[in-house]
Design a protein that fits this description.
The complex is a heterotrimer of chains A (305), B (287) and C (438).
Chain A (H helix, E strand, L loop, with lengths): L1 H35 L21 H7 L4 H34 L7 H13 L2 H11 L6 H9 L15 H25 L4 H9 L4 H29 L3 H7 L10 H11 L3 H26 L1 H7 L1
Chain B lengths: L12 H29 L3 H5 L12 H9 L2 H32 L5 H10 L6 H18 L7 H26 L2 H9 L4 H12 L1 H17 L2 H6 L7 H4 L11 H34 L2
Chain C lengths: L1 H20 L19 E7 L5 H19 L2 E7 L1 H14 L5 E5 L3 H7 L7 H6 L8 H5 L11 E6 L1 E6 H6 L9 H11 L5 E4 L5 H14 L16 H15 L15 H7 L3 E7 L2 H6 L7 E4 L16 E2 L1 E7 L6 H11 L2 H11 L16 H12 L1 E2 L7 H20 L6 H15 L2
Classes of the chains: A mainly alpha (305), B mainly alpha (287), C alpha/beta (438).
Subcellular location (chain B): Cell membrane
Membrane topology (chain B): Multi-pass membrane protein
Family (chain B): Belongs to the binding-protein-dependent transport system permease family.
Chain lengths: 305, 287, 438
């Protein structure tokens, strides 16, 4: 009897510290955040949130009223964020998996190269991004120096930090910073593939491509599933990169939702409306994640694994 | 022993060439900004803000001397180190236990736990900011433990914020470790915890290292919470480095110099840990 | 059993949430008032005024020591960088946990006033720190909404001026600095040649843009908010005003296209290094010297008007820029805080601080001495005669973000070679205004 309880209780015991922390530091603020979205929480009530009048669904109605400029701006920002996330995650994953697979075998300089690849991730975000903003300056930046002055590809120096190209700038900066993480995770995952599998395949006459397709990629599946989801959530909600790259006012073409919400709540002191946008975002991401988990089958295993 | 490069089944020439080309391109993409950081950190400010040049025309180490005067870099570095290390240690330990439970046990509420924990990652961080600050202030008022403005509050924040993804990633790694391994250990007389610590954790070292690096770097670079939750004394690097962009001037050369100085220990740490990533090779191959 | 556990967790979450959401622990319930529980200490958040946070600490340390010697109150100073200041103040305002005394940008006065986080300076409180009469009227107007008790007291003042490169003017045969925009554009065209430009603008910085929009708007006889505090961004006069400013780059082409992305004071650098002949800036002296420009290499003049005989409400050529000093409502050392405000705004301290920071003093008695620099003479006159505070309405921050941001996009379009028409400007401003409506 006692043994039974102990066995049944063990997983809960193992989860307890994580559960307690998440509940206190993560879930409670989140629930407060959700509650805020139903309030008219402007600067008038910032010192006493309880006194802010309930707004019902007004904040939400405003956010999804796509005929009005505020709603349209949110929709635009949402579209930009989706495009940015797909591109940045796709590229980061692609670079990560390519490098990890190519560096699976030892060759001279591998250690050095691995260290180099991991370095962008070892820099503080601020450093990494401010360096890119330095490179992307129109008049004195390296990128235009190469493209315009040295290669002569463009007629006149390109603007990267304002206007439409700022989207490209954002993607490049984000990929530069995140792909080493994908590389790191996948390199670690590759260590778990027994070398014998490759040797056996080689003896069977399988070429590199077939080995990658039939041994490496399937073995990476569990980690890939998590990695892509993690990158997706990170990138979608990324605040640091656009904030450091563009400051508090991002160009329209790179108006990511996190900056948009920051502006709606902090710059304009309207926390109710910012919270409503966040809740909508939460709902969207929940749906995407649920679909993703269903499609990749991870949720099912998580359910009774 | 079985070094692939020297083994009789060496990869074909075409593969080696593809590898060379692709890795060179990636190396250029990665290294160019790093090179610019280095070269800019060795230029006088006037040259850095002028038209771009690949090679510095005046070399100077002055920025490396100035960085300590412009902002208290040493203190920020120590703060960041304390906060990031403590948050990482706590987060990894807690995540290992939680991930083991999720990966190896069936229990009610498992799906609820995983989904809820993951959902916290979907709420924009900025909206946590004020509620969490309020929470800390209230805890402070009720218990006398000052969490706002202290390193403790920041550690608590970061370890909690990295937990969900750490757990998720570790579940992935634990799942990829054959279950027979720890079941065998349990048959051999280890309890479930013994199996976790003696079999699963060693086999998952690369994953754990990767997760630890994730936690560390998240805490190391986080800007938003650090900006509100720290003060002059507890300010971390991520915020402190912004001090080189002042009202009157952006000291690019000093930003680059300071960034390099503070990143050297972190990169060195990476290089050391890299061994463990590779050491996982043998651990993972245990049959 | 398990259901119970989950229910308990849910109950705990709800309880904690409710406790927070009702603000019971915020410590800043409306009834809360300042006290004197801690009479020997003060916490002071200063803004970054000098070349760096560390430099500011060095400037302020001896003054705070002086205050401690006189009153026995120890001041814990924190110089808060601008990037984090507003977020810190918001967190302090919402939790009631903040400094005793703090500096604020004077454009935030009305917002903070509405939040109730700062101690209102009613007649009696103001008298305790020396009285309203001690201050110049323009900075005093930038301490909160009209008709309400000020949220803070003016501490440092600044105005915009036109800086011009004497050598470049001489070479181009320009004898006097321009006094009207038409003259400025004409002079700018003479200066724009050989890779050099007439004017440097900070086109990628919404705040700078909004400041200029305000001044140009005034000169066109328009306001961005009506008397009731409602936004009027897209009135024809405002559209014309914004267009006139953007046209300096877009149509007149006296500013370099690259200026469209300037947001880190690169325009000051361009001016100091002779890449541009003119600059519209607030108290640029320290920065210019830091960039290696010598005091006799540049001249200072008031910002131009639309016509030489501008008068009345169109006689505005600068906003009242500056810093106010306020007392946090939850202070536990009210008397000390007021003493400190009085100390910082005393004539002697003002003389010391404004000399070190190169700013103007809002205190009349501290403006009596002869100007220390030619710059100060011009700035002082502008402050006295033709500077007006930005709209003192709670939504002012939104004006800066939205209108300044719209101008940033217009600059970007212009620099990329698109033609900027009145309709384009109006469309941007209309969109900005519609985003204001809640």
């Amino acid at each position: 009897m006692i043994a039974r309880i102990r066995r049944g209780g063990l997983p809960y015991l193992l989860l307890l510290p994580a559960l307690a922390l998440e509940l206190l530091i993560h879930l409670v603020p989140m629930v407060i955040g959700i509650a805020m979205s139903f309030k008219r929480l402007t600067q008038e009530y910032i010192g006493n949130w309880g006194a802010a009048p309930w707004a019902g669904l007004d904040n939400f109605r405003l956010a999804v009223d796509f005929d009005a400029p505020a709603g349209r701006a949110l929709l635009h920002s949402f579209a930009v964020t989706c495009a940015f996330t797909v591109l940045a995650v796709g590229l980061a994953w692609l670079l990560g998996v390519t490098a990890a697979i190519l560096m699976q075998d030892t060759f001279r300089g591998r250690g050095l190269l691995r260290a180099l690849f991991l370095t962008p991730y070892a820099l503080p975000v601020y450093t990494a991004v401010i360096t890119w903003s330095f490179l992307l300056q129109r008049d004195n930046g390296l990128v235009n120096h190469v493209l315009h002055d040295q290669l002569g590809i463009t007629d006149s120096p390109t603007f990267w930090l304002v206007g439409d190209n700022s989207f490209t700038a954002l993607v490049i900066t984000s990929v530069w910073r995140t792909w080493p993480f994908a590389f790191l995770m996948l390199t670690a995952a590759l260590q778990n593939i027994p070398r014998e599998s490759y040797e056996a395949a080689q003896l069977d006459g399988a070429g590199i491509r077939r080995q990658i397709r039939h041994i490496t990629l399937p073995a990476l599946r569990p980690v890939n599933q998590v990695l892509v989801l993690v990158l997706f959530l990170w990138t979608f909600n990324d605040f640091n990169v656009p904030y450091v790259l563009f400051g508090k006012a991002a160009p329209e073409a790179a108006d990511l939702i996190s900056i948009h919400i920051y502006q709606a709540s902090f710059e304009t002191w309207n926390f109710g409306s910012g919270s409503a946008m966040s809740v909508l975002l939460l709902l969207f991401l929940l749906v995407v994640t649920a679909v993703y988990l269903l499609v990749t089958g991870r949720g099912r295993r998580g359910g009774h694994g | 022993m079985a070094e692939a490069g020297t083994s009789p089944t060496a990869p074909p020439r075409s593969f080696i060439w593809t590898r060379r080309v692709l890795l060179t391109l990636l190396a250029l993409f990665t290294a160019t900004p790093l090179y610019v950081m280095l070269s800019s950190s060795l230029k006088p400010l006037r040259d850095v803000t002028g038209a771009f040049r690949w090679f510095p025309s005046h070399l100077t180490v002055q920025p490396y001397l100035d960085i300590w005067r412009t902002v208290p870099l040493g203190r920020y570095f120590v703060n960041s180190l304390i906060v990031a290390s403590a948050a990482t240690a706590c987060s990894v330990v807690i995540a290992v236990f939680a991930a083991y439970a999720v990966s190896r046990y069936r229990f009610r509420g498992k799906r609820l736990f995983t989904v809820t924990v993951l959902s916290t990652q979907m709420f924009p961080g900025i909206l946590f900011l004020l509620p969490l600050f309020l929470l800390f202030v209230n805890i402070g008022n009720a218990t006398g433990v000052a969490l706002y403005g202290s390193r403790g509050g920041l550690i608590l924040t970061y370890m909690t914020f990295t937990l969900p993804l750490s757990i998720w990633m570790l579940v992935g790694y634990f799942d990829s470790i054959p279950r027979d391994l720890d079941e065998a250990a349990q048959v051999d007389g280890c309890g479930p915890l013994g199996a976790l610590l003696r079999v699963v954790v060693p086999a998952a070292v690369p994953g754990i290292v990767a997760v630890a690096i994730y936690s560390f770097m998240t805490a190391w670079g986080e800007v938003l919470f650090a900006s509100v939750m720290t003060n002059d004394v507890t300010r971390t690097l991520a915020i402190g480095l912004q001090g080189y962009a002042t009202q009157t001037e952006v000291y690019w050369n000093q930003i680059m110099a300071a960034s390099l100085v503070v990143s050297v220990p972190v990169v060195a740490g990476f290089l050391l840990l890299q061994r463990y990533l590779v050491a996982g090779l043998t651990a993972g191959a245990v049959k | 059993m398990r259901r119970f556990r989950m229910a308990a967790a849910a109950a705990l979450t709800t309880a904690l949430t409710a406790a927070l959401a009702t603000g019971c622990g915020g410590g800043n319930a409306p009834g809360d008032t300042a006290g004197n529980g801690n009479p020997k200490e003060l916490t002071y958040w200063a803004t970054n005024q000098g070349s760096s946070v560390e430099a500011d600490k060095k400037v302020l340390a001896p003054e705070l020591k002086k205050f401690e010697r006189r009153t026995g109150i120890k001041v814990h100073l924190e110089v808060v960088p601008w990037a984090t200041l507003l977020d810190r103040i918001l967190a302090a305002a919402s939790s009631g946990q903040g400094p005793d005394v703090l500096n604020i940008g004077n454009t935030w006065s009305a917002s903070l006033q509405k939040s109730g986080a700062l101690l209102p300076f009613d007649g009696k409180t103001f008298a305790e720190v020396g009285g309203k009469e001690r201050f110049a009227s323009a900075p005093l107007a930038a301490t909160g909404a009209r008709g309400k008790d000020p949220a803070a007291v003016p501490l440092y003042s600044l105005t915009y001026a036109l800086y011009y490169n004497k050598a470049m003017f001489r070479e181009a045969g320009i004898e006097q600095p321009p006094t009207t925009w038409a003259e400025l554009v004409a002079d700018g065209k003479k200066l724009t040649r050989g890779g050099k430009y007439g004017l440097a603008v900070e086109g990628g910085n919404p705040v700078e843009n909004a400041h200029h929009a305000f001044v140009f708007g005034k000169q066109h006889g328009a306001d961005f908010f009506d008397a009731a505090g409602k936004p009027t961004f897209d009135r024809p006069a405002n559209v014309a005003a914004v267009k006139q400013y953007v046209d300096l780059l877009a149509n007149d082409r006296i500013a370099a296209p690259g200026n469209a992305e300037y947001a880190q004071n690169q325009s000051v650098r361009d001016f100091a290094t002779g890449k541009a002949g003119m600059l519209l800036w607030q108290a640029a002296r320290t920065s210019l010297l830091a960039h290696g420009m010598k005091p006799d290499e540049y001249g200072v003049a008031p910002v131009p008007f639309r016509s030489a005989d501008a008068s009345g409400r169109r006689n505005v050529n600068s906003m009242v820029a500056g810093i106010n000093i306020g007392v946090f409502k939850n202070t536990d050392n009210l008397d000390g805080a007021l003493k400190f405000v009085k100390f910082m705004t005393s004539t002697d301290e003002q003389n010391v601080l404004t000399t070190k920071y190169g700013s103007l003093s809002p205190v009349l008695a501290a403006q009596k001495h002869a100007p220390r620099t030619p710059d100060e003479a011009v700035l002082r006159e502008v402050l006295a005669k033709s500077a007006e505070p930005l709209p003192q309405v709670p939504d002012e921050a939104q004006f800066e973000t939205l209108v300044g941001g719209a101008m940033k996009e217009l600059f970007a379009d212009a620099a990329a070679g698109k033609k900027i028409t009145t309709a384009d400007v109006r469309a941007r401003l209309t969109a900005a205004q519609q985003q204001m409506q809640k």
